[in-house]
Write a structure and sequence with these properties.
Blueprint lengths: L3 H6 L1 H10 L6 H37 L3 H37 L40 H7 L4 E7 L2 E3 H5 L3 H4 L2 E4 L2 E4 L3 E2 L4 E2 L1 H21 L5 E5 L3 E6 L5 H11 L4 E5 L2 E5 L5
Parallel strand pairs: 1-9
Antiparallel strand pairs: 1-8, 2-4, 3-4, 5-6, 7-8, 9-10
Helix pairs in contact: 3-4
Length: about 280
């Protein structure tokens, strides 16, 4: 999920990113929600200051024997408390709506990502072997997601945190990049988060990874998929598997969730994901 401060301070960058992704975002709605939320917070802080000042008066007035004025001050405090409670409810509603908005706002593409209308504009960097001509062989190939379900399988994806690379990705990196990573079980870990001598990752990475794992587990639990599996793999990646589903409506939800998966970013116990891998 994007940092709300980044979106607030650099909306033009978000405009460009959404245009590059061939999509859009509701800029006006974001600022309406954000401005109202911040206004409510400011108003609550001002009311709290008023309440504190009035509360201090009550004791002094009682000591001076000014009971009527003290009762008036108590009533003023009660009225302020009621206003604060009402604003607290509004703030909760605004934050829930704003969090939902941010959760559905796509990530900023990497600067190295080619910009194009669709996959036909993707540049081909390397090719190995010659693709089979299934039509010439009289064979109709199926999409991998259809093949998996036909065989009684389901849908699975693997999340790779920043600093963690799959063996296949590592194999195609240049020597300079490979030198920055160390093999760990079936994956490769950045030397910035992993010490080969102690064979330990940094405490910060370990903590953030555990938070992200818990957040992912909660996400799929709340989605209500029966027998969905969220497990750690190679200690520092997360594999999510959802069993075969026949309901097209639910299936769309599955693909929507998995479309956010692939690269897992750890930050303040929140997670954002991209680049789906379904099979």
């Amino acid at each position: 999920m994007l940092d709300i401060k980044f979106v607030r301070e650099t909306p033009d960058a978000v405009d460009k990113a959404m245009a590059d992704r061939q999509t859009s975002w509701d800029r006006e709605r974001f600022f309406a929600l954000d401005d109202e939320r911040r206004s409510v917070i400011t108003e609550v802080e001002e009311l709290q200051a008023t309440r504190n000042a009035e509360s201090k008066k009550i004791g002094a007035l009682m000591r001076e024997g000014k009971r009527d004025e003290a009762e008036a001050a108590k009533e003023a405090v009660r009225e302020v408390n009621e206003k604060i409670e009402g604003l607290a409810e509004r703030r909760t509603a605004l934050e829930a709506e704003l969090n939902d908005f941010m959760a559905h706002l796509p990530n900023i593409p990497c600067d190295a990502t080619p910009v194009g209308v669709d996959e036909s504009e993707n540049p081909e960097r390397r090719r190995w072997g010659t693709p089979r001509d299934f039509a010439a062989e009289g064979f109709e190939a199926k999409a991998h997601w259809d093949l998996g379900t036909d065989l009684g399988g389901g849908y699975t994806t693997v999340y790779y945190p920043e600093g963690v690379m799959s063996a296949s990705d590592y194999a195609i990196e240049d020597d300079e990049t490979q030198a920055d990573y160390t093999q760990y079980k079936g994956i490769y870990l950045s030397n910035e988060i992993y010490d080969a001598d102690t064979q330990q990752v940094t405490e910060e990475f370990s903590s953030e990874f555990d938070k992200a794992y818990a957040a992912l587990s909660y996400r799929y639990e709340q989605m209500g998929f029966v027998n969905a599996s969220v497990v750690k793999e190679n200690d520092y990646t997360i594999r999510v598997t959802i069993p075969h589903l026949s309901d097209d409506t639910v299936l769309d939800t599955v693909f929507t969730q998995l479309s956010y998966s692939g690269s897992l970013h750890l930050s303040d116990s929140e997670i954002t994901t991209s680049n789906a891998e379904r099979r």
